[in-house]
Here is the input.
Amino acid sequence: MKTLSLNGGWTGSTNDPKRQFLGTVTASDLPEVRVGTAIEVHFESGETRVASAAEHGVYVLHTGKQRLTLNRLTCDDAAMGGKSSQDDTQAARWTAVVI
Here is the structure.
């Protein structure tokens, strides 16, 4: 799997359907996505009601030119611990794993 290192944060509350992640690429395993590229990540789902967990939707990273489906998007800073609360709207280091 290919990974992207990102710096950024989420906008909006966790239950906002227009919530998005805004950031920049700080490292890339993908030659077509360069360091410094501005990105957005959105959660996309086709239905409001779903039949199973596999049908909930996907996170999609947009570079302006490309649309990349993600297998995983995790906050590296939160994984290190030591935070009393998680505010994912503050800029932090993230790892995106592209399908």
Remarks:
- The longest strand covers residues 2-11.
- Strands lie at 2-11, 20-28, 38-44, 58-62, 67-75, 92-98.
- Residues 76-79 form the longest helix (4 residues).
- The mean pLDDT is 87.
